[in-house]
Amino acid sequence: MTSSRKSRNTDAVSVILFCKAPVPGRVKTRLAADFAGAVDLYASLLDSVIWRLEADAGIELYLFTDSESIPYFEERYPNLSISEQQGHDLGERMQNAFAHVFSIDDASSVVLAGSDVPDFTAETARQMAELCKESDAVLLPSSDGGYSAICLSRRVLADLHRLFHDIVWSTSLVLETQMRRLVDAGFKAIVMSEAMDDIDVLEDLLAYRKGAKRRPLANADLSFLEHLPRVVAILPVLNEAESLPFILPSLLESIWIDEVICVDNGSTDDSSAIIETNGATLLYCKERGYGAAMLTGIEYASRKAPDTILLFMDADGSDDRTHLGDLLRPILAGRADFVLGARQGGLLLHQRAGNILAVWLIRLLWRHSFADLGPFRAIRLKALQSLKMDDRNFGWTIQMQIRAVQQGLVTMEIPVPSLRRLGGKSKVSGTVRGTVLAGTIILRTVFREWRRRRKGFTSHRR
């Protein structure tokens, strides 16, 4: 560390930023467990936060990192002050960083923040420093019970060793414990009214993206979110006015979903009006057919962003929406291309019989074991496009599964409850005619796909 005193703009706010080089296995390990793009996303976020602070003439920025990351930051940010973090735990490293900056900087207060707080800006630092003129410490809370940044007055310098000692970090009691340390040491502390969160786990990231769309910040750089695929839910709708008021609000509010597309397949009730009232995307498909409606939704979703995950589910409330994350997490983590919700219980006898026969045929003809043909499923758009889906009726679900096996996609089945419909009558299992028709179409699809495969093999041999 440099020990010489630094000349500074007297009106500037001094900011310490704790950071690490974006190296797999060393940063964002909890996020990386559920999101394959975690390191690239962190690298983009890190640049955004640093460049935003560095570009502000009213900020004196100090980067503190581990010894292995110093070469990375010296090369990428040659004009910044870069120091090695010292200490056995986070508290000791924070204490030593404050002590060092106070020793080389004449600032009356210093702000310390993490580099993974997307909304932290120079203006935030100035607000904290201004509040610190009337207090000894200012804390910027996070919604998980911790804090994202802290500003300390020079008045606490002699008692730094008491403020961060023996705090159990990464718990919901961090903010409370830190306040007790400050109060017990005789200092006045202020907690800012608005929370600001960092990005530690997948749910943090998804919640941040959802919130950022609702409350866009001035001059906010959200480019790091481009590393996170969009998730689009597609629901075929045919006279589901009784169930849609219960289904749509929860889907639209879910952190897992970016857009809800409802494809009206010829409803004669108020389904379309309910869809528009709730704010979902409404499409119309005049051609009657389950697959036709799905293909209409896919074509629309594919226009927006190539890096998209599609979630398919029925609009009758029988798919358990509390399991959205179970289907999407393996794809976001890079562990699967296609995830199928295997229904547990709730199926009628003839549905179970049809399922058993269909999956047995797949096992016999394609040597792959599925447990179900359920509608609740998720797949990457690029993977789905590679299947060249063309079934426009009830064979759509089994065609996807068969072609996923043939294409070599990494598939996974997740047990999910099968719930009762929230209203209306099933177009398939609700009548004998519907059940027989759907079963016939599904079996016909199996044998058509088998003939297609055999024809392909024959052509290949020629």
UniProtKB/TrEMBL annotation:
Coiled coil: none annotated. Gene3D superfamilies: Spore Coat Polysaccharide Biosynthesis Protein SpsA, Chain A. Residues 234-344 form the Glycosyltransferase 2-like domain. This is DUF2064 domain-containing protein. It comes from Leptonema illini.
